[in-house]
Design brief:
CATH class of the largest domain: Alpha Beta
Distance between the termini: 22 Å
Strand content: 15-25%
Structural class: alpha/beta
Strand order of the largest sheet: 7-5-2-9-1-10-14-18-19
Radius of gyration: 22 Å
CATH superfamily of the largest domain: Adenylosuccinate Synthetase, subunit A, domain 3
CATH topology of the largest domain: Adenylosuccinate Synthetase, Chain A, domain 3
Largest sheet: 9 strands, mixed
Helix content: 25-40%
Number of domains: 3
Number of strands: 19
Number of helices: 13
Length: 426
Amino acid sequence: MPVDIVVGAQWGDEGKGKITDYLAADADIVCRFQGGNNAGHTIIVDDTTYKFHLIPSGILSGKLCALGNGVVIDPKVMIQEIQGLAAADIDDSNLRISPNAHLVMPYHIALDHAQEDARSASDNIGTTRRGIGPCYADKASRIGVRLQDALNAETLRKRVVAALQPKLHLLGGQADQPELQVDHIVESYLGYAECLAKYMDDVSRLIWDACDNDQLVLCEGAQGALLDLDHGMYPFVTSSNCIASAACAGAGVNPRQVRKIYGVAKAYPTRVDTVGPFPSKFGDSPMNDLLVERGHEFGTTTGRKRRCGWLDAVALRHAVRLNGITDLVLTKLDVMYDIDPLKVATSYQTTSGEVINHYPYQAAELAGVAPLFHEMPGFSGDISVAREYSDLPQEARGFIEFIEQAAGAPITLIGVGQSRDQIIPL
């Protein structure tokens, strides 16, 4: 069987973890292909809440779960999550990690803090301060530390010295901290690698063998298409490529093996940062407060309050085309009850008065547009108990069908609550 891919179709936080957990029931391997512990997935099963930052969501389904070479791993966080699995009586023997995955080092985290603190309020990009960007920068500069490098003391020391030396002047007084000393780093990371060594495996080969044996591989992305390093509104982006094609590089997937691409979108988009263009945002308003409260809109990783807005079909249509989305997944529809009218942004008006139907490629242009909305009747009542499409009110179905048409892709799954069973297949 082929490879299916799950990606975010907005600015992240769309509910990809829950959807991956749902789809994992039919998969044999679940593989995370990019990002680091700047991502967060919350999954609720039988009234138990699980929060993962690195471990793929499929771990709760007992499937083989892998972290591909495109993921950057803070080994301390990774070990804590593995210990959390043990505490919850979840088997970790089916966890695999690519030896080519790069490691987040203490100096990456220190540098992330220093760089963000040095930016003015207007230049702040909202990093999670987890060291993800500096780690990817070292990877591109070919001075990064991979998991396999940390298995050998001599190799590890050589790489740490090469990476740390040019950063010392940027770290200033922080460079004297004990945790940033070479000996301390080498000793700590040798210990981390020893703990993680039993999980190391050739993830790309696992995927190829699975496909050769008619097994289904599910690739899980982090963040969302509009935060993609190359295709998002730079610099208000994440540090990796998080669109569907990144699974080919980040997990070793052969493009010809891809069958379905699930794009997950919330019924109302959110951004967890306080900066970056967001045309359809509510701003500081009662509507924003209402959806934050109803939808529990606080970052899984940072705890930061999210900005909310009306669904943006222009941006969603852009994500559909960029990812080649075959199946749209609409989550948190249940949050939108008793809101009348419901609105969907279908085009933008530029500062010159021109109406455009495409997503601008320049951040400055996007920051200046005003969304033009289509309004439709809202729906009333609790829809969290719905399990069939016919259970939904006509107004809710009208909202869904309008989004399908405006986005240019069929909606095949609808989320009406936080739990695993609160998903309606179409």
